[in-house]
Amino acid sequence: MNFQSDVVNVTYCSSDLFSEVCAVSIVSLFENNKHLREINVFVVDDSITEKNKKRILDMATQYKRNVTFISLPNPAEFYNDDRFTIKSLGHTYARMILGDIIPPEVERIISLDSDTMVLGKVDELWNTDMKDHPIAGVDDCMGQVALVKTQHLKADSIHCNAGMYLIDLSVWRKENWTEQFHQYIGGLFDKHISLGGYEEEVITKVVGERMMVLPPKFNLMTLEQVLSYKELIRFRQPMKYYTESQIEEAKKYPVITHTTNFFYIRKRIFEDGSDHPMRPQYEKYRALTPWKDDPAMTVVPTIKQRLQKDVWHMMPKSVAIIIGSFVRNEIRPRLNKKRDDE
């Protein structure tokens, strides 16, 4: 599977709990890219049941596409270090070892979160000239305060969201990025420092300026849909970011949307009764999956979680943004530090 313009490779990491959500993303990819000669999907399998694997395989067969399941390696065994666990690395740690677990003949791949939907043709993304960059992604508007306080990066550092990466696996393997990530994490663990942002934190810090920044239409996130441009800038306070016209263009014509959690959304897109703005699209693609007749997913929030959501929506949105920004920039960093010191 050497790089070809009309043969696209995509990978997901999914647990059984998120198998429905992953299937919705996969079917949206298939539906909107029927013109491609070949689509190969690699699902890193975090204990997906045989029943749900079969559902995904049957769905792929209907579209005459290929799906391969790859068992998620035990991190302690992969790294030969008992400190490397799912708890310490996160369930999607597989993104840091893709060069090792994806078949060696695959030279380029799009890595997607399960909670994404592909709403357009991926040709432009897939055929991006990466110019020897190992990874490309979309700036997630982390904000200068958060970059400095929680990520220990410079205020103008590149920080791309892990929900979508375009990866040149040939460069990855040549430069052995798997080992570079390993060394970085090991250095943190030696100092008894835990990962706050899991693989996104690691990839961001280690790849650094070698990360290629792509247009926002390739990973349009929830906060960009819920907030106006001015509200977004006020909330995140980035030193540099996309222009308002770039964000507005992405909102009109998104190629990939990432339905991330957000404090001003009461229920995630896959939950019954979700207030996410893209819920109609989710329902549209879910109706094309083997999960179409299953009851909608329900998540029972704790009393604390329900009260928090109620409080955010009781206040004017402008006030919620100001308070939310303060919590994100001043309260959370202190909690993270406390956790790291424990």
The helical percent reads 40-55%
Encode the helix/strand succession as letters. EHEHEHHHEEHEHEHHHEEHHHEHHH
Largest sheet entry: 7 strands, mixed
Q: Sum up the overall morphology in one term.
A: globular
Rg over CA atoms, rounded to whole Å, is 20 Å
Under the CATH scheme, which class? Alpha Beta
Query: Per CATH, what is the topology?
Result: Spore Coat Polysaccharide Biosynthesis Protein SpsA, Chain A
In terms of structural class, how would the helical and strand content be classed? Answer: alpha/beta
CATH architectural arrangement? Alpha-Beta Complex
Helical segment count: 16
What percentage of the residues does DSSP assign to strands (E)? 5-15%
Instruction: Say which CATH homologous superfamily is assigned.
Output: Spore Coat Polysaccharide Biosynthesis Protein SpsA, Chain A
Identify the strand order in the major beta sheet: 3-2-1-4-7-6-8
- What are the segments in which pLDDT stays under 50 over at least 5 consecutive residues? 337-342
Summed over residues and divided by their number, the pLDDT gives a mean of 91
Distance between the termini: 46 Å
The count of domains is 1
Compute the number of strand runs: 10
Quaternary structure annotation: single chain
Word description of this protein:
It is a single chain. The protein has one domain (7-341): Spore Coat Polysaccharide Biosynthesis Protein SpsA, Chain A (Alpha-Beta Complex), CATH 3.90.550.10. It has helices spanning 19-31, 50-63, 75-79, 86-89, 98-101, 123-126, 144-149, 169-175, 177-190, 198-207, 222-226, 229-236, 244-252, 279-286, 303-314, 317-341; strands at 7-15, 38-46, 66-71, 108-112, 116-118, 135-137, 164-168, 211-213, 220-221, 256-258. The protein is built from 16 helices and 10 strands. The termini are far apart. A 7-stranded mixed sheet has the order 3-2-1-4-7-6-8. It has a 3-stranded mixed sheet with strand order 5-10-9. With 342 residues, it is α/β, with parallel strands linked by helices.
